[in-house]
Specification:
single chain, about 350 residues, alpha/beta, six-stranded mixed β-sheet, elongated
Length: about 350
């Protein structure tokens, strides 16, 4: 492929990624495209043919050429995977290790995309760079649900296979691997009740749109509403709370705790951010489990990370195998209670 043909392809791909050419939109005619970018019609025709063969555009004669609007998977052997995540979290670090072991066992090259800051924008820049450099299989530990989903839908149009893990639950354009949050929260509530606690306080973040956290809170409210024996409330810690705000939050929580109370955290990082010494005054539970929870006397519900990592890799292999016949799948795993 000539440099000019490659340039035309790259222009169209970048236009699709940035939303200039939305899925299903009609492209200008080859003649007009050639005039606009000062290239020959044969160059444009070659570029369009290449993109059509890749399933990125669709030619509908005589009406014209359109950006594809279907989520067919990229076919071929699974030889490399791009993993987009953040490493400051012990949980995601364990997931990276598990995916790495799976890839090593199956002779798959793993490319890590680790943003300097765990934000949507940083993840999108990495995903775009990987896609433009030919990485066709991505596992994404989403930072937050937002307009980013539209970007990842456009990646799917470009033939990038996608599996989301844990925090962000995609639509029908990607597979998903995560915890069975209803079972997890129900198990933690039952554990608190078994210790004679009848008033439960669920701790969550404010200002953070993460599907898994919202699911866990909804599961808590559902569990409380379905029981005539226990009461519950939800309290929110600002996601970007500073040390003073966290201390104030913890002090108010300690002040309001009674003998029949227990605390359930949406995840381990939240619990660790507000409790720094061993907790004996009341039982504390949370989803996730990391070694330092033992020091705090917290009961955690550990996620089966090795199984989830293997599932994510197998989902990508399935997408590569099925191509146009692929349909999205969401897999949920049950956690295991680990007492201090």
């Amino acid at each position: 492929m000539s440099d000019l043909t490659a340039s035309v392809c790259e222009h169209l791909i970048e236009g699709i990624l940035c939303g200039k050419f939305p899925p299903g939109s009609k492209l200008i005619a080859e003649r007009d495209f050639a005039e606009k970018f000062s290239v020959s019609r044969i160059t444009v025709r070659r570029a369009f043919a290449r993109l059509e063969n890749a399933g990125i555009i669709v030619r509908k004669r005589p009406s014209g050429t359109y950006v594809a609007d279907t989520f067919q998977a990229h076919c071929g052997e699974l030889r490399s995977i791009g993993l987009i995540t953040a490493l400051p979290h012990e949980f995601s670090g364990s997931f990276v290790e598990a995916v790495s072991r799976c890839c090593e066992n199956e002779d798959i090259l793993l490319a890590l995309g680790i943003p300097q800051d765990h934000t949507v924008q940083a993840q999108l820049r990495i995903a775009e760079r990987m896609a433009l450099r030919g990485v066709k299989n991505l596992i994404v530990w989403g930072a937050e649900k937002s307009s980013a989903m539209q970007f990842f839908e456009r990646l799917r149009i470009l033939g990038v296979n996608l599996v989301f893990f844990d925090q962000v639950i995609p639509g029908t354009f990607a597979d998903y691997v995560g915890l069975d949050n209803l079972h997890a929260v129900s198990s933690l509530v039952d554990a608190a009740v078994s210790r004679g606690k009848t008033h439960l306080i669920f701790l969550n973040y404010a200002g953070l749109e993460i599907d898994s956290n919202m699911e866990r809170e909804a599961a808590f409210r559902q569990k409380i509403a379905g029981s005539g024996k226990i009461s519950g409330e939800v309290r929110y810690l600002p996601y970007k709370a500073d040390a003073a705000e966290r201390r104030k939050f913890a002090a108010e929580l300690f002040r309001d705790i009674s003998a029949d109370s227990a605390v359930i955290g949406v995840n381990a990082p939240l619990i660790r951010s507000i409790f720094h010494e061993e907790i004996r005054e009341f039982p504390v539970f949370c989803i996730d489990h990391i070694p330092k929870l033992h020091e705090l006397n917290v009961t955690g519900l550990a996620q089966p990370i090795a199984e989830m990592a293997d599932c994510a890799v197998q989902m990508l292999k399935n997408q590569c195998r099925k191509g146009k016949k692929w349909q999205c799948e969401h897999r949920r795993f049950k956690g295991v209670m680990i007492a201090p």
